[in-house]
Amino acid sequence: MTHDLEHKFVNQLEANQNIVHKICKIYTDCPDAHKDLFQEITIQLWKAYPKFRGDAKFSTWMYRIALNTAITLYRKSKRRLPTDNIDPVLYRVKAIDYDDTEEQQLSLMYDAIKQLNDIEKALVFLYLEDKNYYEISETMGITEINARVKMNRIKKKLRNILNP
Amino acid sequence: MEELDLLKKDWQKREKNLPKLSYEDIYKMMLRKSSSSVRWIFYISILELGLGILIILFYHPNVGKQLQLPNFINYFSYISIPVLLYFAYRFFQNYRNISTTASVKGLLESIMNARRTVRLYIILNLVLGGLASIFTFIYVYINQQGGWDIFVHEAQIKDYLIIFVVAVIATLIVLFVLLGIYLLLYGFLMRRLRHNYKELKKMEV
């Protein structure tokens, strides 16, 4: 019986592992930390799995637990490898010249998101995942209006990081 | 924001580049032990409960006889036992309430609640321990001087002052050591949780 449950869980997680990988990508900056967080999320998902009744979609349920783990349960290791930031000045000059490729702009955006705090990262993540404000508010435990307001503030903040 | 929508498209395109774990990889991960901060907070609070029990044992009547401790110390242990049982129950309840299925805010709230219980418990322990320590010190000292009657007869204001000051200082040292350990253990684990909780609170304003 337990074995059946294990089998079912691993299969479902394997099929939906992208969600967890994406969260790891936003919250960590090196492969080791990525793997660590993935593991912690897997453990938390498994612990919560008996309570998963299937009345929600497995993936929806996963978003919640995985984000909870990233924000509240995961112990970030203190030693963090310095991310090799490309000189932002260089990029700004290029931005003025309107010479930048889409690729560069995107990588700047990813860097900017890394500078947000845990809660803001969660909102951006759900936004990027194309979740509507109702779903965002449900996952975060805030009202829909607050989710909207916060998202607007984050956009403003990102703009400030990109064009200081 | 134009850029963020651009990113949204890219984000969905990038799914192909994500790492892919096999069934075996995930199965192995699932069986590992969690190392989350909440788990550690729970372990430490259990440890503290143990500390509370040690304090009671320390003031146990048998030990009291050897040290010639006064009767009122017994009352301290009598008070402590129901208090301890109550907190043991609360700790367990709090830990059970911390479930990842809640929303982020709900989860953080239950963690903060659990923390509040531990803090209350620590403060209570420190107050009880501090009071017991002051009274015991004064009592033992006076007894060594030949008992209350002789002491009152011979003592001058200076003696009273010395007893009082030394008792207070000794107690303060004990309390500071305990408080230091406490801050060291929890301060480290709680910093990020508190920060995130504040961020969520800010959102509600």
Automatic annotation (TrEMBL), chain A:
The keyword Transmembrane does not apply. Transmembrane segments: none annotated. Keywords: Sigma factor, Transcription, Transcription regulation. Residues 109-158 form the RNA polymerase sigma factor 70 region 4 type domain. It holds the Pfam family Sigma70_r2. Residues 14-80 form the RNA polymerase sigma-70 region domain. The keyword Transcription applies. Belongs to the sigma-70 factor family. ECF subfamily. NCBIfam families: sigma70-ECF (TIGR02937). This is RNA polymerase ECF-type sigma factor.
